[in-house]
Amino acid sequence: MHSSHCFSNLHPSAEAQLRQAQLTYDRNQTLQQQGAVSTETFDRAKEQLDMAQAGLNERKAQLDNTQQTIKEEINQEKENLAKYKKFDQSMSG
After folding, report:
1. Residues 35/40/41/43 CA torsion (nearest 10 deg)
2. Across residues 52-62, what is the average pLDDT?
3. What is the pLDDT of residue 2?
4. What global pTM score does this model have?
5. The dihedral of CA 58, 10, 6, 80: what is its sign?
6. Which of 6, 32, 38, 73 is deepest in the core (most CB within 10 A)?
7. Contact 6, 15 (CB under 8 A)
8. Angle (deg, nearest 10), helices 12-33 and 39-92
C-alpha cells in the first residue's frame, strides 16, 4: 500500500471544514454582490475560508513530516539490522 494512501484519511475533517467554508464564502459573495449580506458577514466568511485552508495546510505539513520521520526511522532500523546480521555472521563464523 502506498504510504500517502495509508495516511490520506487523517485529515478528512479539515477537508470537510474547507469545503463548508468555501460554500459559505461563495454564497456570501453572491449575496453581498446583491446587497443581501453585510460586508462584515462576507468578511467573516472569507476569514473562515482562510482559516480552514490554513488548518488543512497545517495538517498536510504535519502528515508530510510524520511520513518523513517514519521513513528515516525505517532506514535507521534497516542499517541496524544489517549491522546486527554482519555481527552475527562474524560471531558464528
Report:
1. 110
2. 95
3. 47
4. 0.71
5. positive
6. 32
7. no
8. 160
Radius of gyration in angstroms for the set of CA atoms belonging to the chain, rounded to a whole number: 24
Contact at 8 Å (CB) between 11 and 54?
Answer: no
At 79, list the grid cell: 542499517
* CA 21 – CA 49 distance, rounded (Å): 5
Mean pLDDT rounded to a whole number for the chain:
89
Angle CA 17–19–25, to nearest 5: 100
- Tell how many helices (H) and how many strands (E) occur in the chain: 3, 0
Each residue of 64-90: pLDDT tens digit? 999 999 999 999 999 999 999 998 888
